[in-house]
Amino acid sequence: MLADLALLALRLALGAVFLGHGAQKSVGxxxxxxxxxxxxxxxxxxxxPARLWTALAVGGELAAGLLxxxxxxxxxAGLLVLGTMAVAIAKVHGPKGFFVQDGGYEYNLVxxxxxxxxxxxxxxxxxxxxxxxLAR
Length: 136
What we know:
The chain has six helices and no strands. The chain has 136 residues and is mainly alpha-helical. The chain has one domain (2-25, 58-131). It starts with a helix and ends in a 5-residue tail after the last helix.
């Protein structure tokens, strides 16, 4: 029971983080740039066409967030987190070093590790995967 509550807490926190970041980039929530601003930034990183890559990034963040919140299809959610954070590390944070106060990749790495740990442990009893009989 305690492990199931711990997995729920991890899933809810991770899901909220990714939904929040996706909302910043999609609609400008929480002081974010909105889709146009995010597309401009992603374009400045060399991604072409910028709007397509922005849609993929935003969609990945929103989908991962929702899937982690619900405890549904966690392997897909984990891949979405791994993909978006790996790109963020490679294109933005990696060159700035490890520590987040210098713009480094420490935070992105923690998100990847938490996502992979939750995927490896399973969604827990308080999940749609469990309710639907999809959990192992």
